[in-house]
Design brief:
alpha+beta; five-stranded mixed β-sheet; 4 helices
């Protein structure tokens, strides 16, 4: 009978060490998976919000709305633009003003908080009580306001005598503090506290150097965030950023810059911006 030597303690420890390394590698996948799932859910919610916003714009004829039309008459930008932001109007926010005035307006069908929640927040975000019933403590269904949206409308063909071509952008907010919006005065300009105006210098077609925020203001900018060129009416996603010294920040953006923006607005809580194309406005 042949005797086979038993496994030594050293071999057992080595096997346990190798298995522990493998288990640690597997454990790192769980938080990465959770982050990826959270981003996927956010992307899905943003896409659903934008789809809803486009349907609302068509069904409620936002391009034809009387309040929006009056806003175009107050715009001093070229081409004329309006920022359809009922939450901002209810919160007392002023116009978006950097070089020109983009009036912040509501709509004729969103004149109260209840109607604004109905039309300008994602209906899926409904708050339920512990017993599973809807939260109606505010005399209307609380939709949570986790995702809300605004429109930027840009008049593309102001010289046409009978029709104007209107470009529509849907700006989707995630976690916007719609209950605590306020304004802050910077010199003679008024901005929302979540919209910081800064000077901008074009470095190349995909890069800007942003100056420090005005006195008394703070600037929150991060990868994946958005900046807005209010003089031309274009949004740009921040893909990378670096400290340029002296309070300046170098940011890479997408898509390519259009025109030569000298000032931009850093937008907080903006998750996505969707270009929904143009349509005719009588």
């Amino acid at each position: 009978m042949t005797h086979r030597p038993a496994v030594t303690l050293m071999e057992v420890l080595i096997a346990m060490f190798i298995m522990a390394i493998g288990m640690l590698a597997l454990l790192t996948l769980f938080p990465l998976g959770a982050l990826s799932m959270a981003q996927a859910l956010k992307d899905d919610r943003c896409a659903n919000t934008a789809s809803m916003a486009e349907n609302v714009a068509i069904a409620m004829k936002v391009r034809h709305d009387s309040v929006v039309l009056n806003g175009f008459g107050l715009s001093t930008t070229t081409p004329p633009m309006v920022y359809v932001d009922p939450y901002g109007v209810l919160g007392g926010l002023g116009s978006v003003q950097v070089g020109g005035v983009i009036p912040r307006v509501s709509t004729s069908f969103a004149s109260s908080l209840a109607s604004t929640d109905r039309w300008f927040s994602l209906p899926d975000d409904i708050t339920f009580l512990a017993n599973g019933t809807l939260d109606t403590s505010s005399s209307f269904i609380d939709r949570g306001r986790r995702y809300s949206y605004t429109y930027l409308l840009r008049q593309m063909s102001p010289n046409l005598a009978q029709f104007n071509l209107i470009q529509l952008y849907v700006v989707v907010y995630s976690g916007r503090p719609v209950n605590s919006l306020a304004t802050a005065n910077v010199g003679t300009l008024t901005f929302a506290t979540t919209e910081t105006p800064v000077t901008a210098t074009v470095l190349n077609p995909n890069s800007l150097q942003l100056g420090p925020p005005p006195s008394g203001r703070t600037m929150t900018i991060e990868r994946g965030g958005w900046v807005f060129d209010p003089n031309n009416g274009y949004f740009y996603r921040v893909t990378n950023l670096a400290d340029a010294g002296g309070g300046n920040t170098t940011v890479d953006v997408q898509p390519n810059l259009i025109g030569n923006p000298t000032q931009v607005v850093v937008m907080d809580n903006v998750a996505e911006v969707f270009d929904k194309g143009s349509s005719w406005q009588p």
